[in-house]
Amino acid sequence: MTRDIAINHATVREKADMLAFIDLCAARNLRAVSIWGDEIDKVGEAAAQAALQQAGMTVYGYNRIGPFIATELDKAPAQLEQAARFGADHVLVFTGGLVDGEHDLKAARRRHEDIIGGLLDQARQIGVKLALEPLHPMLVGDRTTLASLSHANAICDALGDGIGIVIDVHHVWWDERLEEEVARAGKAGRILGFHVNDWLVPTRHLLRDRGMMGDGIIDLPYIDGLVRATGFNGPVEVEIFSDDWAARDPAFVLDTVVQRCTQIFPDLVTP
Amino acid sequence: MTRDIAINHATVREKADMLAFIDLCAARNLRAVSIWGDEIDKVGEAAAQAALQQAGMTVYGYNRIGPFIATELDKAPAQLEQAARFGADHVLVFTGGLVDGEHDLKAARRRHEDIIGGLLDQARQIGVKLALEPLHPMLVGDRTTLASLSHANAICDALGDGIGIVIDVHHVWWDERLEEEVARAGKAGRILGFHVNDWLVPTRHLLRDRGMMGDGIIDLPYIDGLVRATGFNGPVEVEIFSDDWAARDPAFVLDTVVQRCTQIFPDLVTP
What keywords sit in the KW lines (chains A, B) (predicted)? Predict the structure, then answer.
């Protein structure tokens, strides 16, 4: 069994538009990418589709629905339709945080859970899967209300089919319940993605200082082992939000990504 | 029933040494302070003791044992003895994070749990209580391995008497299990302290950008209510690690602390 490397466009989006990104991935024999709706808009959907087709490349994750404010939620049906047109494996759900002046996190969580239920109804009709990605607890408040695998698992338990979880090492590596919650997600067949990057010491910014795999302190082979032990064999998705890496030549970034992935993760399709 | 405001010296330590800090608290009729061993060293233990005695002030928390490296752990017996001489209610335990090159968080946690057990033996002999303070998950790696109330409760469950938990809102407010884990700690009679401050949006630094109570998004009355519902009636301890507040006049900082606490928390001893 082999698996792919899928790179998330966010990793190089500041210097490479979607068409350039697809070319860069194709030149490295990568077979899947994760994409962003706003980046599709920048190059036009027809051009984006043509570039993918020409490269023989599939879409893994589609980013994203949210944050959960009315003006953004209004776009959800069109975003789900677009994700379906691109054949995306799953659509990332981004709750966003508390609204201005709001302090009741518990109420916000209940509201967001309700909204996720409504989005799932839409997604089922359109035939695409929703992916919950618990974010790091340091992002609770302004960017999310969903900050643990246990919370994501509980939401999925309540909602049934058509919704699953993306596990991003940056967000969950610290959790003392990591093993049991990964196993729980795996047993339910709901692991939809596995995002890799690294935790730098020091981390200088809450949002934009993730590390390249191998430059930080996360035990990536260990977490990869937990995920694979569930039977999950999807791509290793590389998603690095980093001002440092965003400023570098995208070709160099992707070469580094491929090299590091090959060193760290077994059974990859050799690029 | 009334309760005190106890200010942690760290809040103003950059501009006020321990003697000045005690004077500032006494001038506001505060009756308890939380102190630091390294700040005692700067002014001398005799002077520190005399200042406390003259002010009629008691010591609440003593900071701290750790991080868990040999050179620091060697100091633990002397630190516990010093805390006892100051009549401290509890001694904060600071695990520190992974050592250089270490990636195995699970093994580090096991090692730290063993060290805590050894420290507890020492603390029992000397007759002081140890306090585990779960830190925010963003501090896992370089500053702690203990990042949730559930982990702290599990360690206390395993170790028995003489060890408890300090609940700091900044570290735990995001946790979807907050209610149940506060109740669990309370039921076991192991809540030793309640630290307040606030979570700013945006938070610009992982360590030194906490907010003054009321300036952020934490629902302080709600968490205070959870803690008090367990029967805990210790002081409200204010601990603000913040470059902004550290740069201000300590008298102004303490006036603001007292004013905000009076607005937010019921039943305080009126300063």
Answer: Isomerase
Contact B222 A109 (CB under 8 A): no
What is the rounded distance in angstroms from the CA atom of residue B84 to the CA atom of residue B130?
12
Model confidence over B124-174: pLDDT tens digits? Answer: 999 999 999 999 999 999 999 999 999 999 999 999 999 999 999 999 999
Closest CA to B266 of B222, B201, B230, B216: B222
Helix (H, G, I), strand (E, B) or coil at A8: strand
- Between CA A175 and CA A178 the distance in angstroms is 5
What is the residue type of B167? I
CATH 3.40.190.10 fits B5-264, yes or no: no
Can you read off the two tokens belonging to residue A178?
């990591």
Closest to B28 (Cα-Cα) out of B3, B57, B1: B57
The residue of chain A nearest to residue B218, with distances taken between CA atoms, is A103
Q: Which of B118, B128, B127 is nearest to B155 (CA)?
A: B118
ipTM of the modeled complex: 0.96
* A149: closest chain B residue by CA: B176
CB < 8 Å to B176, chain A: 109, 147-148, 150-151
Whether A177 and B150 lie within 8 Å, measured CB to CB: yes
* Residue spans of alpha helices (H) in B56-104: 70-73, 76-85
- Check: CB of residue B132 under 8 Å from CB of residue B165: yes
pTM listed for this prediction: 0.97
pLDDT tens sequence across A226-244: 999 999 999 999 999 999 9
Q: What is the pLDDT of residue A6?
A: 98
**HEC states along A41-103?**
HHHCHHHHHHHHHHHCCEEEEEEEECCCCHHHHCCHHHHHHHHHHCCCCEEEECCCCCCCCCC
Per-residue model confidence as pLDDT tens digits over A172-199: 999 999 999 999 999 999 999 999 999 9
Q: Is A217's CB within 8 Å of B147's CB?
A: no
Mean pLDDT of A6-29: 98
User: Least CA distance to B104: which residue of chain A?
Assistant: A219
Q: Which residues of B touch A (CB under 8 A)?
A: 97-98, 102-106, 109, 136-138, 140-142, 147-148, 150-151, 173-177, 199, 201-203, 206, 217-219, 222
Are residues B173 and A199, on separate chains, in Cβ contact within 8 Å?
Answer: no
